[in-house]
Write a structure and sequence with these properties.
The structure holds three protein chains of three kinds. By secondary structure, chain A is α/β, with parallel strands linked by helices. Chain A has helices at 47-55, 77-82, 100-109, 122-126, 129-138, 153-166, 183-196, 209-215, 233-238, 240-260; strands at residues 9-18, 21-31, 36-40, 62-67, 70-71, 85-88, 171-175, 201-205, 218-223, 226-231. In chain A, the strands form two sheets. In chain A, strands 6-7-8-3-9-10 form a six-stranded mixed beta sheet, with helices on both faces. The longest helix of chain A has 21 residues, at 240-260. The chains are: A alpha/beta, B mainly alpha, C mainly alpha.
């Protein structure tokens, strides 16, 4: 689909340096609503750094991040959220003392004028059916009123995604959504991704090959801070550069991780 | 408009006092840098140093031995205190602040109970004056400043030229890495705490002939030291030193034109400005 | 889904229903009112102190326990509030409503201004800088001629409070008691409502995971600033009532001791609840009243208590009575860096 429209997310030529080490060099990426782009690469390739730059946690040395044509390079996470980009984290980042319902509600609330009303009851607002529906769609309906720190790891990962989803973002970044999750729950997360995110541009960092195959519409491979291949999973895994990177011990690792989940 | 000689005197006096403040502030900064403890009792260690020097003076007729005795005693007492009393509180700034504040109350009241509340003065151990550019300085002040600089120089040697210093700096910068490298960070913390305490005590000894010695004398120095570490950066040793000299000197200079409290308020405003524009301290990287 | 079976069945501390809360609250208020109306004068004045200071305590509890701003300079607002109450009464013919209202406005404004600087700072820096503001305020007040009375303090005759056709004089023990009780209840309800509102939920989110709150689009700085300003307002009001009760103000109210006390009250009672601070201030006030009469050096006991509570019972009384209800924030943090920036 090459419509002549501005891409929803465009990352151009991003370079990031940390005290002498180049974490990213000339990284680029585009993402469109309806696509699910998976970023692959060995550990230390710069995948999370790329997310940190896009999400506004780090300022790049050079390069541009554009959301629907607006330059958001180096802006704070808060501003980037307002442009419609939400993010879920590798280690689940939720609000531990708040209930699942309150967590999800906070994901949605930020753009809602009711949050400035000191006379509104948070309890009542959070009880909105929208929240309950979202929880049902992601499989957290029966823990809605439990504090987030009581949830299992998989549930917390799903909640992290849910908080990002709740605000109806246009672009969603997921950092290793199945990491540390048992094999049974991987399927659950995969269906959350494929079933609830059709009207978003999703960019996922992932290691598990089976998951990648299940969700990716496009794949980008990073190695040592550079993009070395992009295309469909089939195209990319046929490329010699990619095989070399993974054959250098990386592929075996990757397969192992795939089996362990 | 005050006379130039007055301005000069107050400026130099401020710089001299800055050397002493630097000793206390560096101790504070070291202790925070190494173990995340905001030591509210630090000013009281300064006070104890001064009190000990009065006691030594009463017994031995001179305060010079106190320069060795006070830091030694307090430094040694500090070691088990860190290990057994403070260790559980480390890494939690607010906890340690309140805990050390409790310690401060205890120390102050004990001194009040045993020594009394009446301020004491110790006569200066040297009685000469120095004429600098037509302005007369009490000799002891210059000696105190000089000794302060000597101690700072010794500190610099320890921190930058000894293996202990290397381990100390590594532990401040990257505690997990230092630990992984096999450095006994627990021992380093304990020793550094002792070092910080000793510095404060030494400052107190030097200050005894200059200030009234009484159980609350630590408050003013603490106030200044906190301002200094904020401006210099918590854990940033060079920054703290420079900030101590600059701020003290500035305060001295300003006190030629303003009331001492007003000078202090100006310093506070300067600190607020640093906090707004360079939150990590004026000299942070 | 299979996930349901793998979920741990942990026990959440059951919170009280709204009906139960209202019931208990009403009972407490009624009992206190009865205490003031029929109890001995000594107990009555002690209770007045506790009620007035509980406004301070609860507001600090919000700041520390719900927004996680560890401030040690609230005495600035407390003392300023006290002066707002007394100073106009010595110079001009203000009504009691006017001076109380002034304390609210001045408290809010002053807290807002200092907050713009203080709220940006990370934990250690925030503590130190707020403490410095408080300490220097006292220093300035002691030494500047425009502040009359200085350390010696300033006294004033308090006019009666006009409420429609009625007048309540603070010199009448029982009506005054009920007046203070009314103020305390209203203040508590306002803060309670605030904490239960969406604003309060965002505050809790910021306390729990500031970075995530930022990522989710919230202006964390604005929320913290709002909290700091509102709490400063309540603190100033508490100071004003405190001065009215004593018919007196002094620069002592600006001192660091009055900044440490609220921390103690909240620590003893339990961080993260609104009722904990009230328990804390009650216990402390009673303790201080009786022990200080026995031993001038009671501060030593205070020091020991502080260390002991921090060491062995940082969850506070509420945390002991209902485990899990207090947030042991003081233990949570293990951040190694002394960073200055906490925002963007």
């Amino acid at each position: 689909m090459s419509e002549r429209r501005v891409p929803d997310l465009r990352v151009t030529d991003v370079t990031v340096e940390f005290g002498g080490l180049t974490a990213l060099q000339g990284a680029h990426l585009t993402a469109e609503v309806g696509e699910r782009t998976v970023i692959l690469g060995p550990n230390g390739a710069g995948k999370t750094t790329l997310f940190n730059v896009i999400g506004g946690t780090i300022k790049p040395r050079s390069g541009r991040i554009e959301i629907r044509g607006h330059d958001v390079t180096g802006r704070s996470p808060r501003v980037i959220r307002r442009h419609g980009l939400a993010r879920a984290f590798q280690t689940p980042s939720v609000f531990p003392t708040l209930t699942v319902r309150e967590n999800l509600w906070l994901g949605r609330l930020y753009s809602d004028p009711v949050r400035w009303n000191p006379f509104a009851s948070a309890h009542r607002e959070a009880a909105a059916s929208e929240i309950t529906e979202l929880a049902e769609r992601i499989g957290l309906a029966d823990v809605l009123d439990r504090p987030a720190d009581e949830l299992s790891h998989a549930d917390q990962k799903v909640l992290d995604i849910g908080v990002a989803l709740a605000g109806k973002p246009t672009i969603l970044l997921l950092d290793e959504p199945t990491q540390g999750v048992s094999p049974e729950d991987v399927g659950r997360i995969v269906s959350v991704i494929t079933e609830t995110m059709q009207d978003m541009a999703v960019v996922v960092i992932e290691h598990d090959i089976a998951t990648v195959a299940a969700i990716a519409t496009r794949v980008i491979v990073l190695d040592r801070g550079r993009v070395i291949a992009e295309g469909s999973l089939a195209e990319v895994s046929a490329r010699p550069e990619v095989q070399e990177v993974y054959l250098g011990g990386g592929l075996a690792e990757l397969l192992d991780e795939g089996w362990d989940g | 408009m005050p006379e130039t000689s007055t301005i000069f005197f107050l400026l130099v006096d401020g710089l001299i006092w800055g050397c002493i403040v630097a000793l206390i502030a560096l101790g504070l900064s070291l202790i925070f840098g190494i173990m995340n403890i905001i030591n509210m009792a630090h000013g009281d260690l300064f006070m104890l140093g001064a009190v000990i020097s009065v006691l030594v003076f009463d017994r031995l007729g001179s305060i010079w031995p106190a320069l060795l005795i006070a830091p030694l005693i307090l430094g040694i007492v500090a070691l088990p205190t860190e290990r057994y009393v403070l260790r559980p509180f480390e890494q939690k700034p607010l906890n340690t602040l309140i805990a050390t504040l409790g310690l401060s109350f205890i120390i102050q009241q004990l001194v009040l109970m045993t020594w009394g509340g009446r301020p004491r003065r110790v006569p200066a151990p040297v009685e000469f004056t120095v004429d600098l550019f037509g302005v007369v300085f009490p000799g002891y002040r210059l000696v105190a400043g000089g000794l302060g600089l000597v101690l700072l120089g010794l500190l610099w040697l320890v921190v930058y030229k000894t293996s202990f210093g290397v381990k100390l700096r590594a532990t401040i910068d990257q505690p997990e890495v230092a630990d992984a490298m096999g450095i006994d960070t627990s021992r380093i913390r304990m020793l550094t705490f002792g070092l910080g305490v000793a510095l404060a005590a030494a400052g107190g000894v030097l200050a005894a002939p200059i200030r009234n010695v009484f159980f609350l004398m630590g408050f003013d120095v603490m106030l200044m030291s906190f301002i200094v570490v904020i401006v210099g950066g918590l854990g940033n040793l060079l920054g703290t030193l420079v900030a101590a000299l600059v701020l003290s000197g500035t305060e001295g200079f300003l006190s030629a034109f303003l009331a001492p409290v007003s000078a202090r308020i100006v310093i506070l405003i300067l600190m607020a400005a640093v906090v707004v524009f360079r939150p990590r301290g004026l000299f942070s990287s | 889904m299979t996930a349901t079976e793998t979920r741990p069945q942990a026990a959440t501390p059951r919170t009280l229903s709204t009906g139960a809360r209202i019931g208990i609250g009403a009972a407490v208020v009624a009992a206190t009112a009865a205490l003031g109306m029929f109890g001995p004068p000594g107990i009555r004045s002690l209770t007045v102190l506790v009620m007035i200071l509980s406004i301070y305590a609860v507001s600090y509890g919000v700041l520390l326990g719900f927004v996680d701003l560890p401030s040690l300079g609230q005495s600035l607002f407390f003392g300023v509030g006290a002066y707002c109450a007394i100073l106009p009464l010595t110079r001009a013919d203000w009504s009691l409503w006017a001076v109380l209202g002034t304390s609210l406005v001045v408290g809010l404004a002053l807290a807002f201004v200092t907050g713009t600087v203080a709220v940006r700072l990370s934990e250690a820096y925030h503590v130190i800088v707020t403490a410095l503001f408080g300490a220097v305020a006292q220093l300035a007040a002691d030494n500047f001629p425009p502040i009359p009375g200085g350390e010696g303090g300033l006294s004033a005759r308090i006019p009666p409070l006009r409420l429609g056709p009625w007048e309540i004089s603070v010199y009448d023990a029982v009506p005054a008691f009920l007046l203070y009780l009314a103020f305390a209840v209203v203040a508590f309800l306002l803060m309670y409502g605030l904490v239960r509102s969406p604003i309060g939920t965002v505050w809790k989110a910021i306390r729990d995971n500031q970075d995530r709150a930022l990522s989710a689009g919230y202006n964390v700085y604005a929320y913290k600033l709002a909290a700091f300003a509102i709490v400063g307002m309540f603190t100033a009001f508490s100071g004003a009532l405190y001065a009215v009760n004593l018919r007196y103000t002094s620069t002592e109210f600006l001192g660091i001791a009055w900044s440490v006390l609220p921390f103690l009250w909240v620590l003893i009672g339990g961080t993260g609840t609104l009722t904990g601070p009230i328990i804390g201030v009650a216990i402390y006030t009673v303790f201080q009243f009786y022990v200080s009469q026995l031993w001038t050096h009671y501060l030593i006991i205070l020091g020991v208590v502080m260390i002991a509570v921090l060491r062995w019972a940082p969850q506070g009384i509420m945390g002991i009575v209902r485990p899990g209800s207090t947030r042991n924030l003081l233990a949570r943090r293990a951040a190694p860096a002394a960073e200055g920036d906490s925002d963007e």
